[in-house]
Specification:
- The complex is a heterotrimer of chains A (263), B (366) and C (291).
- Chain A has 10 helices and no strands.
- By secondary structure, chain A is an all-alpha fold.
- Chain A has a single domain (58-258), classed as Orthogonal Bundle (MetI-like fold), CATH 1.10.3720.10.
- The longest helix of chain A has 31 residues, at 2-32.
- By secondary structure, chain B is α+β, with helices and mostly antiparallel strands.
- Chain B folds into 2 domains: 10-234, Rossmann fold; 244-363, Beta Barrel (OB fold (Dihydrolipoamide Acetyltransferase, E2P)).
- Helices cover 23% and strands 36% of the residues of chain B.
- Chain B has helices spanning 50-58, 100-110, 115-128, 144-156, 174-191, 202-208, 226-231, 236-241, and strands spanning 10-21, 24-35, 39-43, 65-70, 73-74, 85-88, 162-166, 194-199, 211-216, 219-224, 245-256, 260-265, 268-273, 283-289, 294-295, 305-316, 321-327, 332-337, 351-356, 361-363.
- Chain B is elongated, with a radius of gyration of 25 Å.
- Mean pLDDT of chain B is 89; it is low at 1-6.
- Chain C has 291 residues and is an all-alpha fold.
- In chain C, 69% of the residues lie in helices and 2% in strands.
- The longest helix of chain C is centred in the first third of the chain and has 33 residues, at 64-96.
- The chains are: A mainly alpha (263), B alpha+beta (366), C mainly alpha (291).
- At the A-C interface, helix 1, helix 3, helix 4, helix 5 and helix 6 of A face helix 1, helix 3, helix 4, helix 5 and helix 6 of C.
């Protein structure tokens, strides 16, 4: 019986330690972003906010934010639309449904590198110049489409088709049924999916880096700076990115959980 | 409140058990004695605390205060795996990743029995529940009734002195449930251990148990044999929860020797016996089962009271006819008349003379 | 289509599925076929030209370097996966036993670090493991060492730490979901039948949570297998993985055909792992059961 209690205490301590270990590196990062030192690291040389000033003044950083937002919104919109149509189709039974499902899910299991490489080859062959709203956009839609589908489909399959039967009985065409019966029921779920897809796009790096043109997204911008030179404002930029992505994800999470059951 | 069981040793005894879940009082000062070899029912509606009490006996909850003894020894704080009890859970809780054999053998394995003895005992108990040959089946291949019997076997193979059953038959259809009743009775008879089971079904409690505790809102209201509970309910709740009763308000007019009373109810004087002394003028509530209200005939006897009434409603029940009749003075009674041969037409509006004997009325204590 | 319109969900399924299917066919499947094709082409300093040659694959299988690199990658992936399993399992178990409010809170607390971009989360280890990082400076302050330890960063170990840190949630979540589905009554039954807490865990909980643990392992293994960012940042020369090898053929080198072949090898390994695991759990059930 005492052994019983001991295990409970040890487990609790372990979980606490685990969570601390999870957050500690990020805390260190935030701390260092205020470090008045030329190197990224210790010792602590004093408090300063000038690195943030550097970041916020940097036109490249601002541009990266705009690029990420742009490609994010467009790719999330496209992805959500495709996923919605696909999800509605999946409510039926048809041949090759299983095959199609595996095809959709492929980008998730395909190594990220391979996903980037195959697009690079494809676009070179097609002679497409890499740019934000062409090649990068495609890469992002590729990545987020299966996730959008997996999030949206459970919500679509819960729709009661008796409502559609009733509408059709009263003379509505398929499109009218969609616009007046289905869409009003699913738009919160679609919104949640859109936001979730947006966060996926924002965070996407590995596929993006292969099909990149001249415009950088946030993760790419950060990466390039890290790889070129470990300048002291990097922790500040990293912290800024943390704040942006966490807020965006928190929003998506809130909308996801409030608009339907969690998957 | 507890019946005299001094002749037998108490298998399980709860003394002043109270259980709180946060703000909610699940059990309120419950004391109960369950004798060895009893087939004991904890009967009550949802939320009355019966399952909580059972779980406390099994060791899955600890009482907030009070004492619990099994076999004469206190088991407070003792975890389930050290108690001489075994439980059959409401939804059976069979191990999904194990076969029938492995499920049943689990308890024996925990006690480190040798493989030879395990095999022998499992075979024995499978024969007992009539599932021979099912050893290697996986759980999801079984029907509802078969799963039930595996759950019973799994508990019984350990030879517990007390078997706890948590609404074990709730999920079964009527046919299967009646079959299981027979199985349980047979097992109880053959094994001679103490069975304690929880149910909300009063018909089940009456047919299976030899003693019943009726519970409501965390309290034990009455303990007794099925006959006692049925024929002499002590409280309004018990009278209404088991069978169907007329509840009649009245006032004591005369207090006769041996606790016999004459009570006036809505202008009619009824004779009854009370279990406590009562004074004239005291208000009482009487309980009178529908089927104990008869039609006046010569066999009535001196203690029967005749009540001329007019039939207001009539319902055909199949085995009886249920009439609601009102006397001239305003006393309304519901009667289930089974003896239809000598009853007459019993149509609405026709007069009828009801007969109530002294022994058929119970004086409620609340 | 004339005649009586049947009831049920609206739309013609093939029509509805078409846009997404076309997208996938055009932008995932076709490029994939191209990838396999290019792996048989030949690259040189003149560029890449179509061919049907096994020279790339020959080079991969004959030159020890690539085999060793693949083995090292598999090793790192395996170690990271097992480490993640051991670290995440108790956390998942703890959370699954909490009451709903605490559980939701803990899951949220668990999620938030994973909402941070993974490039940042890998980067974060530089100022911790580096010469002037948190660990070294702490050890110096405490007087445990005189000069900063160099080996913490730019090593295989650093990569493993980074990978486990980045991908642990993918292990915790599936295990948690499976543990949730274990009926509390089954655990009570085990205790009722004489099992002490440790026995309940090993004989009932562990076997029943096995599918979730496997799903988590598969996911983490696949992710760590194809890692690029973490080894590039934290690995130094000794911690480079297969992903870095592939990337260097394209981003810097001009050996696209060879890079394609390497990619195909990586994909083949990933598919092999999936196939092996798929025999134990139904993959489409893990991913949500849409099929």
């Amino acid at each position: 019986m005492t052994a019983d209690r001991w295990v409970v205490v040890a487990l609790r301590a372990y979980v606490a330690l685990f969570l601390v270990a999870l957050y500690a590196p990020l805390m260190v990062l935030v701390a260092l972003s205020f470090n008045d030192s030329r190197i990224i690291g210790f010792p602590w040389e004093g408090f300063t906010a000038r690195w943030y000033g550097l970041i916020l003044d940097s036109p490249a950083f601002a541009e990266a934010i705009v690029n990420s937002a742009l490609v994010g919104i467009v790719s999330a919109a496209i992805g959500t639309a495709l996923a919605t149509a696909l999800g509605l189709g999946f409510r039926h039974e048809f041949r090759l449904k299983k095959v199609l499902f595996y095809a959709i899910v492929t980008p998730i299991v395909l190594p990220g590198i391979a996903g980037g490489v195959l697009l690079l080859l494809f676009f070179s062959l097609m002679g497409v110049t890499p740019s934000l709203l062409t090649t990068v956009l495609v890469a992002h839609v590729n990545w987020l489409l299966p996730f959008a589908f997996l999030v949206l489909y459970p919500r679509l399959s819960r729709l009661d088709s008796a409502l559609e039967d009733a509408a059709r009985d009263l003379g509505a065409t398929d499109w009218q049924v969609f616009a007046r019966v289905i869409w009003p029921a699913i738009w919160p779920g679609a919104l949640a999916t859109f936001l979730f897809a947006l966060t996926l796009s924002f965070d996407e790096f590995i596929r993006t880096i292969f099909v990149l043109g001249g415009e950088r997204t946030i993760p790419v911008h950060f990466w390039v700076l890290v790889v070129e030179e470990l300048t002291p404002e990097l922790p500040a930029m990293a912290t800024a990115i943390v704040v942006i992505t966490v807020c965006l994800s928190a929003l998506a999470h809130a909308v996801l959980t409030r608009t339907g059951n969690r998957s | 409140m507890s019946e005299a069981t001094s002749a037998r040793r108490a298998a399980v005894e709860a003394r002043r058990v109270t259980k709180r879940f946060g703000e909610v009082l699940a059990l309120d000062d419950v004391s109960l004695e369950i004798g060895e070899g009893d087939f004991f029912a904890l009967l009550g509606p949802s939320g009355c605390g019966k399952t909580t009490l059972l779980r406390i006996m099994g060791g899955f909850e600890n009482p907030s205060s009070g004492e619990l003894m099994i076999g004469g020894r206190s088991v407070l704080g003792q975890p389930p795996y050290l108690r001489p009890t075994n439980m059959i859970f409401q939804h059976l809780a069979l191990f999904p990743h194990m076969s029938v054999f492995e499920n049943i053998a689990f308890g024996l394995k925990m006690r480190r029995e040798t493989p030879g003895r395990i095999r022998a005992k499992v075979e024995e108990v499978l024969a007992l529940v009539r599932l021979q040959g099912f050893e290697s089946r996986s759980i999801d291949q079984l029907s509802g009734g078969q799963k039930q019997r595996v759950a019973m076997a799994r508990a019984l193979v350990n030879g517990p002195s007390v078997l706890l059953l948590d609404e074990p038959l709730g999920a079964l259809d009527l046919q299967l449930r009646l079959q299981m009743h027979d199985e349980l009775r047979r097992l109880h008879r053959d094994l001679g251990s103490t069975f304690i089971f929880v149910t909300h079904d009063q018909a089940e409690a009456i047919t299976l148990a030899n003693r019943i505790a009726v519970m409501n809102a965390g309290r034990v209201l009455q303990v007794g044999t099925p006959e006692e509970i049925y024929n002499a309910p002590q409280t309004r709740f018990v009278a209404q929860f088991i069978g169907q009763s007329n509840l009649i308000e009245g006032r004591v007019v005369e207090a006769l020797p041996q606790r016999r009373l004459v009570v006036e109810c809505a202008g009619v004087r009824l004779r009854c016996r009370s279990s406590a002394d009562m004074k004239p003028g005291a208000p009482v509530t009487l309980s009178l089962r529908y089927e104990r209200v008869g039609l006046a005939n010569a066999r009535g006897g001196a203690d029967a009271v005749a009540i001329p009434s007019l039939i207001a409603e009539r319902t055909f029940l199949g085995s009886a006819v249920r009439i609601t009749a009102r006397s001239a003075s305003g006393l309304t009674l519901v009667a289930d008349i089974a003896d239809l041969e000598h009853a007459g037409p019993l149509s609405v509006g026709s007069p009828v003379e009801l007969q109530v004997s002294e022994r058929s009325i119970t004086v409620l204590q609340d | 289509m004339t005649g009586i319109r049947a009831g049920g969900p609206i739309g013609r399924p093939l029509l509805l599925a078409a846009p997404a299917s076309l997208w996938i066919a055009l932008f995932t499947l076709a490029p994939f076929v191209l990838l396999v094709a290019v792996s048989f082409w030949v690259s040189g300093y003149y560029g890449t030209r179509p061919d049907f040659s096994l020279s790339n694959y020959a080079r991969i299988f004959q030159n020890e370097l690539y085999g060793l690199q693949l083995l090292k990658t598999l090793r790192i992936a395996l170690v990271s996966t097992l480490l993640a399993l051991v670290l995440a399992y108790p956390v998942a178990w703890f959370i699954s036993r909490q009451a709903l409010r605490m559980k939701t809170l803990l899951i949220l607390v668990l999620f938030i670090p994973f909402w941070v971009n993974y490039v940042v989360r890998a980067f974060v280890w530089l100022p911790i493991l580096g010469r002037s990082g948190a660990i070294n400076s702490a050890l110096l302050r405490l007087g445990v060492i005189d000069t900063p330890v160099d080996g913490l960063l730019y090593s295989e170990g650093a990569v493993i730490v980074g990978l486990v840190y980045v991908y642990t949630l993918f292990m915790t979540l599936p295990i948690l979901l499976t543990l949730e589905r274990i009926d509390e009554n089954v655990l009570d039954a085990a205790r009722d039948l004489g099992a002490a807490p440790l026995q309940v865990f090993f004989r009932v909980v562990l076997p029943l949570s096995w599918p979730g643990a496997l799903a988590g392992c598969v996911m983490v293994f696949l992710l760590t297998l194809s890692a690029y960012v973490t080894p590039q940042l934290l690995g130094g020369p000794s911690g480079l993985m297969f992903g870095n090898l592939i990337a260097s053929q394209f981003l810097g080198g001009n050996n696209w055909a060879f890079g394609a072949a390497l990619s195909c090898v990586l994909v083949a390994v990933a598919l092999a792992v999936l196939a092996a695991a798929g025999r134990w759990i139904k993959l489409h059930r893990v991913l949500g059961g849409a099929a």
